[in-house]
């Protein structure tokens, strides 16, 4: 079984994956997957995927009809995202006016509750049905989160940009709900129960901008906010796109350098997430990321209280050439020659784009 397939199998069916992955593997160093303990076989698979910074051979291209349908879904998801997040919309317009029609998305990211059926897989199934491959699990113990990222089917021959350009990676995270306090767990389960089978239609919720559970009351939102801002964000935003990411290295002007891109954004009056520094850099120096602070908007809770809540933000990423390809000419460089994947340290700081601390700094 390929590494990516095993990772998703463990998430979809922990019991079955446990039997497959433990064959011949010692039972030490357990890794929890949806409340089960999986041995080092699972960890080795995730580590092997992480160790190879180059993308694997992508899935076959989507048939034309499937490709058209998939991109229409992503386009509608993007419309909801841009309508709710004026910062992202304005920055995309500014980049287009400065650099031309060269904007490509590096990845799209979503947040979920790690409750059986409502976590990563509630959205992953849609993407894997359209040729995406699970690649690697990332863990964020302090935030009680885990994530899996997915690589797209082959991107050869694209002619457009944005959602009609090269297909983006997908990054889906989930809150490890059973690690929260009993009070927070009770609140989350209370709303999950009102969803019925809404979790089976997470992608539809993303493109409609609607919650699949009852609108929450303000006091529940406050309780979750005190323990996990991620939990509070997910309660009021559901499966909405958390952020889209511009691949700066695909631009053609001077702002293809992320440092110049960041200055361009700040010079146009936007504040960037300063957690851990404006620029988040992987240990190998090959993945560099930054992001704005989330937009906010008024939200009327079920008990009639109207308050401002964090919405989404826009991220920027520059992927450097892998060392073995450093001598390629510019016209020879393809995405597969660049650093692939994600970095826990970078992503941990990017998550803070929706935090109260960053929202406060934005208005300071």
TrEMBL record:
<dbReference type="Pfam" id="PF07063">
    <property type="entry name" value="HGLS"/>
</dbReference>
<feature type="region of interest" description="Disordered">
    <location>
        <begin position="334"/>
        <end position="364"/>
    </location>
</feature>
<dbReference type="GO" id="GO:0051213">
    <property type="term" value="F:dioxygenase activity"/>
</dbReference>
<keyword id="KW-0223">Dioxygenase</keyword>
<dbReference type="InterPro" id="IPR009770">
    <property type="entry name" value="HGLS"/>
</dbReference>
<protein>
    <recommendedName>
        <fullName>2-oxoadipate dioxygenase/decarboxylase</fullName>
        <ecNumber>1.13.11.93</ecNumber>
    </recommendedName>
</protein>
<feature type="compositionally biased region" description="Basic and acidic residues">
    <location>
        <begin position="349"/>
        <end position="364"/>
    </location>
</feature>
<keyword id="KW-0560">Oxidoreductase</keyword>
<keyword id="KW-0408">Iron</keyword>
<comment type="similarity">
    <text>Belongs to the 2-oxoadipate dioxygenase/decarboxylase family.</text>
</comment>
């Amino acid at each position: 079984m390929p590494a990516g397939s095993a990772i998703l199998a463990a998430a979809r069916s922990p019991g079955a994956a446990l039997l497959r992955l433990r064959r011949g593997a010692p039972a030490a160093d357990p890794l929890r997957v949806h409340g089960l303990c999986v041995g080092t076989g699972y960890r080795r698979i995730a580590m092997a995927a992480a160790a190879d910074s180059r993308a694997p051979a992508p899935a076959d291209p989507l048939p034309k009809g499937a490709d058209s349908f998939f991109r229409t879904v992503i386009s509608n998801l993007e419309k909801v995202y841009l309508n709710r997040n004026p910062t992202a919309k304005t920055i995309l317009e500014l980049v287009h006016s400065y650099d031309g029609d060269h904007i490509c998305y590096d990845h799209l990211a979503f947040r979920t509750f790690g409750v059986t059926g409502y976590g990563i897989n509630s959205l992953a199934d849609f993407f894997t049905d359209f040729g995406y491959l699970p690649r690697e699990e990332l863990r964020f113990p302090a935030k009680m989160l885990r994530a899996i990222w997915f690589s797209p089917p082959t991107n050869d021959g694209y002619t457009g940009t944005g959602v009609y350009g090269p297909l983006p990676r997908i990054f889906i995270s989930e809150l490890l709900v059973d690690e929260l306090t009993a009070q927070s767990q009770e609140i989350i389960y209370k709303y999950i129960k009102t969803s019925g089978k809404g979790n089976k239609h997470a992608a539809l919720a993303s493109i409609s901008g609607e919650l699949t559970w009852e609108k929450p009351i303000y006091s529940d939102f406050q309780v979750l906010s005190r323990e996990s801002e991620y939990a509070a964000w997910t309660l009021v935003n559901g499966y909405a796109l958390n952020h889209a990411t511009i691949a700066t290295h695909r631009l053609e002007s001077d702002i293809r350098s992320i440092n110049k891109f960041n200055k361009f954004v700040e010079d146009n009056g936007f504040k960037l997430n300063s957690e851990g520094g404006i620029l988040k850099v992987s240990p190998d120096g090959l993945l560099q990321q930054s992001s704005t602070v989330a937009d906010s908007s008024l939200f009327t809770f079920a008990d009639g209280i109207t308050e401002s809540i964090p919405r989404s933000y826009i991220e920027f990423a520059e992927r450097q050439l892998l060392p073995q390809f450093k001598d390629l000419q510019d016209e020879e460089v393809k995405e597969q020659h660049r650093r692939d994947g994600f970095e826990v340290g970078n992503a941990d700081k990017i998550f803070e784009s929706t935090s109260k601390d960053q929202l406060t700094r934005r208005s300071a």
